[in-house]
Design brief:
Length: 814
């Protein structure tokens, strides 16, 4: 099939090249190379010049071409487009795409689109070329090529319709396009004048040539040839002959042009004018929702709310309705009181049974409103409700987004236990995740950090229990034994030894019942004694289990989460860095828990040493893995305050010196430098701090690293952005992100701004402010963020700014 289609397309293009005359009534001469199956047959298109185009022939050719070819090809094209729309999925949390289909994902429909092209080609080749449907068939060919993604061929097809069916002289020769010969007078026009009288509207069909201009613009935009699209838009916008019936199509492509240029207010204005082009109420509601989003991004909450409400009233899609109502509600953000009223309205909405299936969406939106007024704890509570209400693996579910945002909020507030727990709950295969690499990087970095935090929490709890008065401590541990045994489904009253034996051995005198064996006794489930015994053995071995799937795995997860709890009531008293055995086979008794408490001086020293080491390792991980300079400073200062004689003091002072320098706190940096010179003279760390260009191996390494980053800096300054980005990635992979400077980050943000990648630029600038709050680059980064927020306004001002150059002979007064 594709081979035949290509042959017919070649024939059509040769036909186009060989035209000498084209007229609605006139003849047509051409040289045609036919496909092999038609070599011995003279087609009707070849007989165009040989027969008169009588009324009977006109009626016959028009009827057959219209109903046998144009109708069927057009119907198949519409069916393909409807299927593509049905399979397309919108993410209402983001700015919607302009169309509810993607021509880049039309591959499954290529065979059917080839069929459309084949049908249209055959309709042209086997019929008289003077019939009224040839231009329609060419338009169908072009549209099918457009949806296939063959944009160059589609453009050539639309351009052919433009030239081949342009206005003609009486003798059949072309009139110059855009000349006064088309209509007379001084009006410049490239369009074909259409008859608007009633008989013409009833009996004739509008020419496809004017429509071809619209599709040429759409093809330009699909190819990102925005300048060419803008030129053609401007031309036909000012064309006096361009028909009124196509004005909404023109507004549609104008809206698309502004949408692709991210000029959202203009896109909204023209898309509103193009709403009559929507195929049905649902598509109109979708476009109204998009208009609301465009106005929201243009800081026009009044119009945004208006169109969100229109979309909510019109749509039959419950998900779109919920999102439209949520976005309409959140537009009133004038003050904190208004935000509070919006949140209360959303929570009232969530309580209604009508929205029970969309509570996760409602809670998630309310959480984002809480973040607007900086209420992080309130946002977390709502996000937790969203995770509980969300149904996994359901389209539109906010479960992943809620867990991801919870993880981000916990990470940013240095609650790393919670951050790891929430990140572990994120479905990494969910397409809603925009930056999977960052998520995996954070999850990997948090594993050792949480391990050290567990050591600190566990030993802190053990030491607090050990510090209790003896009577109070014994009562507390006994109570704790009961709680643990109850939680594991172990009966009270049995001794530890009995429990251990019961859990790890089977009474050999009682053979286990064969559920399906050929025995003469009662069937297992009819024997109350056997059932009771089996139930008891199961509970002794596995504890009380809920009637759910995968309870073994669920139990393991629950135990792991319990081990992270800071409450000493839930502590498993184990060794440094690892919890004690937690399965029901281990001995849970007063003696087994008491022996893990640091009651002797030797045990207390081991516990303190564990905490000292964990505190240092934690500070070092904040420094190396997270580049959290503030967190590093807090942790290592705590280390030096609690353990002034720590063996890690020299390295801690060195890291503190670096962090203070990076955050711009020069006074504290000098203080740590003096401490190194006083307490550790001649050490490697003291040499590096005092003389970074010294000859030690470590300092030489630092010099080499510095030279490498200096070269990257020079590449940035001299405009070799791509090379600088690649070299920086390579250097960071070798040395980590520790040695980034705020200047490099700032210049990197400038590169992203130049590439019009504002989201990436904003992330880099925010990192500068977060990591280097006391550095002078932080103020510049804040200024640049403010400028980016007004980028559209500034660009419009500069675009509209008219500067008149003074004449050569004019006098300039200074």
């Amino acid at each position: 099939m594709p081979k035949v289609v290509n042959q017919i397309i070649i024939c059509s293009l040769l036909l186009c090249a060989a035209f000498s005359k084209v007229s609605a009534q006139g003849g047509l001469s051409f040289d045609l190379i036919k496909p092999k199956k038609f070599e011995e047959k003279k087609l009707a298109s070849e007989k165009t010049d040989e027969k008169k185009f009588t009324a009977v022939r006109r009626f016959t050719q028009n009827g057959i071409t219209k109903f046998n070819y144009n109708f069927n090809a057009n119907l198949k094209l519409e069916m393909v487009l409807e299927r593509a729309k049905a399979e397309y999925r919108d993410d209402y949390n983001k700015l919607l795409s302009f169309y509810n289909y993607d021509i880049k994902k039309m591959t499954p429909y290529h065979t059917e689109l080839d069929s459309v092209i084949y049908k249209a080609n055959m309709g042209i080749l086997i019929h008289d070329l003077r019939n009224a449907w040839v231009d329609n068939l060419y338009m169908l060919m072009g549209k099918a090529r457009y949806f296939k993604g063959d944009l160059d061929t589609a453009y050539l097809t639309f351009q052919y319709v433009n030239y081949a069916f342009s206005p003609k002289e009486k003798d059949g020769y072309d009139k110059p396009i855009g000349s006064n010969a088309n209509e007379g007078g001084s009006a410049f026009s490239i369009s074909t004048k259409e008859k608007t009288d009633l008989p013409s509207k009833v009996w004739s069909r509008p020419p496809s040539r004017n429509e071809s201009f619209i599709w040429q613009i759409r093809t330009y935009l699909a190819k990102n040839e925005n300048a060419e699209a803008a030129g053609l838009i401007e031309t036909i916008k000012n064309d006096p002959l361009f028909p009124e019936r196509l004005k909404t199509d023109l507004h549609e492509v104008q809206a698309l042009w502004f949408y692709q240029q991210e000029i959202y207010d203009s896109a909204a204005v023209y898309l509103e004018k193009a709403l009559p082009n929507a195929a049905n109420n649902q598509e109109q509601a979708r476009w109204e929702y998009l208009i609301g989003q465009l106005y929201e991004r243009s800081d026009d909450p009044v119009l945004a709310k208006e169109f969100f409400e229109k979309a909510a009233k019109r749509t039959l899609n419950p998900v779109l309705e919920v999102y439209a109502r949520l976005n309409a509600t959140r537009q009133n953000r004038s003050d904190e009181k208004a935000i509070a009223e919006n949140i209360e309205a959303l929570l009232k909405m969530a309580r209604k049974d009508r929205y029970v299936n969309y509570r996760d969406i409602i809670y998630f939106t309310a959480a984002t409103m809480e973040l607007d007024r900086k209420n992080i704890e309130g946002a977390k509570q709502l996000l937790l409700k969203a995770t509980q209400a969300a149904k996994p693996n359901v389209e539109g579910s906010q479960r992943t987004n809620a867990f991801l945002l919870l993880g981000d909020l916990s990470y940013e507030t240095r609650k790393y236990h919670d951050a790891k727990r929430f990140y572990d709950s994120v479905n990494v295969s969910d397409p809603a995740i925009q930056n999977t690499e960052l998520l995996q990087e954070r999850k990997l970095a948090l594993v050792p950090i949480v391990e050290q935090l567990d050591i600190l929490d566990r030993n802190d709890s053990l030491q607090r229990i050990a510090a209790m008065p003896e009577t109070e401590r014994e009562a507390y541990v006994k109570k704790l034994v009961k709680q643990i045994r109850k939680a594991r489904g172990i009966k009270d009253g049995a001794g530890a030894e009995t429990e251990s034996a019961g859990n790890n051995s089977i009474n050999k005198t009682d053979a286990p019942a064969d559920l399906f064996g050929n025995t003469k006794s009662d069937w297992y489930f009819d024997n109350a004694s056997l059932k009771s015994k089996g139930f008891t053995e199961f509970r002794n071995k596995f504890g009380n289990r809920p009637n759910v799937d995968n309870w073994r795995r669920s139990s393991a997860i629950a135990n792991q989460q319990n081990s992270n709890n800071k409450d000493p009531k839930s502590i498993d008293f184990g060794k440094e860095g690892a919890p004690a055995a937690s399965d029901s086979a281990s001995v849970i008794s007063f003696e087994s828990l008491m022996k893990n408490l640091p009651l002797t001086e030797e045990q207390m020293k081991i516990s303190r040493d564990s905490m000292e080491k964990a505190t240092f390792q934690l500070g070092k991980m904040y420094f190396e893995s997270l580049e959290d300079y503030e967190g590093t400073i807090i942790t290592l200062e705590e280390l030096l305050g609690k353990y002034p004689a720590t063996i890690h003091k020299a390295e801690a002072l060195f890291i503190l010196h670096y962090c203070y320098t990076k955050t711009g706190n020069i006074a504290k940096a000098n203080e740590t430098k003096q401490a190194l010179e006083k307490d550790f003279p001649g050490s490697e760390y003291q040499k590096i701090v005092t003389n970074p260009k010294g000859g030690s191996q470590r300092s030489n390494e630092l010099i080499a690293i510095t030279k490498q980053y200096d070269q990257i800096y020079n590449d940035f300054i001299e405009g070799r952005f791509a090379k600088a980005i690649e070299d920086k990635k390579a250097a960071d992979s070798m040395y980590g992100v520790t040695y980034w400077t705020p200047q490099l980050l700032y210049i990197e943000s400038v590169y992203y701004i130049k590439q019009k990648d504002d989201p990436k630029a904003k992330i880099v600038l925010q990192n500068i402010i977060k990591l280097y709050p006391n550095n002078e680059m932080a103020a510049r980064a804040q200024t640049m963020l403010d400028v980016l927020g007004r980028r559209k306004e500034i660009e419009e001002y500069l675009t509209n700014l008219k500067i008149e150059r003074p004449g050569e002979d004019s006098a300039i007064v200074i």
